[in-house]
Write a structure and sequence with these properties.
By secondary structure, the protein is mainly β. Helix content is 12%, strand content 37%. The chain has helices at 17-40, 43-49; strands spanning 54-62, 74-80, 94-98, 116-119, 123-125, 128-136, 139-147, 152-154, 167-174, 185-191, 194-196, 210-218, 224-230, 236-243.
């Protein structure tokens, strides 16, 4: 009797080129995003590049009496101090973030912080001469420094709170037709418990960092009242109001 061993053919499943391409694509995206995050966070510098780069941090303190400090924005720009063109460092701008917002404190802790602390995340630079520019509203603050291998924290004196004279500009329109009625409208300010004309308030009294009430009115229209909290750095106020005609 004849016998024979017949081997079953082995079929290997071919890999789908499309699946491989999709896998490689998502892997590349993951590596790129992770690398960017590690670079932006300074982790790569801190672990691998620390012999050649040093961290710079900007930390600023302001009095706690500032109203709505979270609305304030401080931007920091970095420049190479070559004593010639002073080029700005690309993609190095930073925001100063409020680190101890009183509104985020525990409910039972009612004591205000001694100072409001704004700080930036570190920027890793090669040792050398640099300049920074801090901008907040109408204020600009420049500072030059020499960065060594140990890194540094810059603590600028941005001038604290300086109340400013408040400038007011109004614009009124008919709420039904949209017609500009600014020329025949007027406004008054609540001052010492009375509505008075703005020109009767001394300039040194109409200051920022306060709550002011404004009443806009015109003959034949219902007055409109605005109660506004003005920050210390907000020295220009524009009010646009649509006034409703009075019912006959």
């Amino acid at each position: 009797m004849l016998t024979s061993n017949v081997e079953e053919p082995v079929f290997s499943q071919k890999k789908n080129p499309l699946q491989r391409a999709i896998l490689i694509f998502f892997l590349a995206v993951f590596i790129a995003v992770s690398g960017w995050f590690l670079w932006d966070a300074g982790i790569i510098h801190r672990i691998f590049l620390w012999p050649w780069f040093s961290p710079v941090t900007v930390s600023m303190q302001l009095p706690p009496a500032i109203q709505d400090p979270e609305d304030m924005q401080f931007r920091v720009f970095y420049f190479i101090d070559d004593e010639n063109t002073i080029p700005e460092i690309d993609k190095a701008a930073r925001l100063l973030i409020l680190r101890n917002n009183p509104k985020d404190r525990k409910r039972q802790d009612t004591s205000p912080p001694e100072r409001l602390v704004f700080s930036s995340k570190p920027l890793w630079l090669r040792p050398g001469k640099y300049r920074i520019k801090i901008v907040s509203g109408p204020r600009i603050w420049w500072h030059s420094f020499v960065l060594g291998k140990e890194g540094m924290t810059i603590q600028p004196d941005f001038g604290g709170i300086t109340k400013r004279t408040l400038g007011v500009r109004i614009h009124t329109a008919d709420a039904l037709t949209g017609k500009d009625i600014t020329a025949k409208s007027r406004y008054s300010i609540l001052y010492n418990g009375r509505w008075v004309q703005p020109e009767t308030i001394p300039a040194e009294r109409l200051l920022t960092d306060a709550v002011w009430k404004f009443r806009l009115e015109a003959d034949g229209y219902v007055p409109s009242v605005f109660s506004l909290k003005i920050g210390w750095f907000q020295d220009e106020l524009a009010i646009e109001a649509s006034l409703t005609p009075e019912q006959e």
